[in-house]
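As a warm-up, study this chain.
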Amino acid sequence: MATLPRRQKPTADLLPQTQSQYASHLFQTSLFSDCTIRSGSRIWHLHRCILAPRCEFFYTCFSGDFEESSSASVDMHDDEPGTVGRMLKWLYTLELSRSEGSWTSDLQLWLMADKYGLTGLMDDCRRLIVEKARSCVKDEQAFEQAVDGFVEGIEVLFIDLPDRDDVQAIREDVVEIVARMIAKKMGQLPVLEDLMREIPGFGKLLIQTLSRQGKQRRRASSSSLGSISVGSGSSASLHSPQPEKLHIPMNEDSEEEFD
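Now compare it with the structure written out below.
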C-alpha cells in the first residue's frame, strides 16, 4: 500500500494575524479562488463570497440569470485596469492605502466607486484626496515638488467630475486648503493664477473662500480685542493692524485684492 505524504502544517505566511491581513493575503495569492475578473490585459482570480456581499454589481453578476453567473467570470472592459485593481483590493480589505496611486488616480477611483455604488470607498477616497491636497500645499517646497500632480488633480476635480453636491463638497474641501496656503503668504504662485484663469469654477470658488476666510479672521480679531478689559480710571485706544493685501489677478484688465 502506498504511503500518503504527511500533511505539512500551514506556514506562518498562510495564517495572517488579522482579518485585514488575511483578506489582503487572499487577494494577492488567489488562494481558494472561484471566480475571475478581467480588465484590459489584467486578470484577477478572486472569491465570490467576498465580492458579492460587498458590491451589488458583483452580486447581480454571480446570482442572476447571466452568463457571468454560470462562468463565474466578469469582464470589466470599460474600466481602467489599475483603478479596477484598487477597487477590488478595497472590497477585500475595506482599506485604502495612501501610498497607492496619485491624487488624480484617487479621483478616478472615486468616480468608479460612484459608478458601482460603493459609498464606503467614496468616503475613503474623499478623505485621501483631501489629505493628499493638504500634503501638496503644506509649504512651498512640497508644492514645488507636487505641482504637476496638483494641477492635474484640479483639472480632473473641476472639469472631468460632474457638477453634483458630493463633488462640490470635495472641491470646497480642496479649495479651503489652497486658500489657507495663500493666507500663509507662501508667495504669489503663478500656477494658481493660471489655474484661476483657465478653470473659472476653481477661480470663482477660490475667490469666495478667500473672501470668507478674510471676514472670519477680521471678526475673530475684533472679538479678541473687544474682550480685553481696561482697568477702572484708565483709558486705552486699541487698533488692530491693517492686514496685508494679497493680489490675485483674474485677467489682464482687472485685479482682485484679498486680506
